[in-house]
Amino acid sequence: MKYNILVCDDEKDIVSAIEIYLKAEGYNVFPAYDGLEALRIMEQNDIHLVIMDLMMPKMDGISAILKIREKENIPIIILSAKAEVTDKIIGLNVGADDYITKPFNAIELIARVNSGIRRYTSLGSAEIDTGDYTVGRISVNDNAKEVRVDGEIANLTPHEYKILLLLLKNKGRVFSSDEIYEQVWEEAAHDVKKVISVHISHLRDKIEINPRKPDLIKSVYGMGYKFEDQG
Question: Domain containing 27 — which CATH number?
């Protein structure tokens, strides 16, 4: 599958340069030169990742990101000449996932795009959700970071919570120990099977009726773990 990337910057030379880099990596590129044009393109095309400048005419990048986040949670990378920490914080707070400062390194840009696409394909991102998930006797309120089992609050550690949410949001899909570690700890995995096994065991103790015979978090021999699709 070829992924579609929207590149929005009022400097056409920058858009053209990024387009060359991304097309060399096999991506489809949709150029835009202001926020309004970017939104129009998104309405007409299935976009998988956005690279957005901050300072632009007609509609700035911050306003465009806020509009995008009303409907979708695809990865957004801010591209801006501003290097101040406050600008990065504003951009991330309104919904961007990453930030690159101009002038940028092409290799770094591609690496960040590839990373964003990997997150998109592994976690899914078609529509904004409410943050509430219920599967069988398990309910999760992601906004409050609260997990209930049969209506009773389960006290999970941050890593246990993230593992549960990852598996629950992708119920039925098998994740290897390395995939779980990289998604939850957000760093490269090296010999992590024991670490994940221990966390899964503790998580089962807190949410399974019989942790020795789990009916929710299943082990798939030689492959990893999945949250059993109760449907």
Answer: 3.40.50.2300
All residues at 6 or more sequence positions from 72 whose CB lies less than 8 Å from its CB, including other chains: 42, 125, 126, 127, 128
Verify that 104 and 138 share a domain, yes or no.
Answer: no
Q: For 175, which DSSP code?
A: B
Domain finish residue from 99, 123, 147: 123
Q: What does the pLDDT average to over 120-132?
A: 58
Rounded distance between C-alpha atoms, residue 138 and residue 37, angstroms: 43
Q: Give residue-wise pLDDT tens across range 32-85.
A: 999 999 999 999 998 999 999 888 888 888 899 989 888 887 889 988 776 666
Q: Can you give the residue range of the structural domain that contains 177? A: 132-227
| Residues 8, 84 within the same domain | yes
Mean pLDDT of the chain: 87
pTM: 0.54
Tell me the CA distances in angstroms from 3 to 89, 100, 112, 200, one per residue in order.
28, 20, 14, 33
Q: Are residues 136 and 115 in the same domain?
A: no
Q: How confident is the model at residue 127 (pLDDT cuts 50, 70, 90)?
A: very low
Residue type, 218: K
- Residue 223 sits in the same domain as residue 206: yes
In the chain, beta strands by DSSP E: 4-8, 28-32, 49-53, 76-80, 98-101, 132-135, 138-141, 146-149, 152-154, 217-220, 224-227
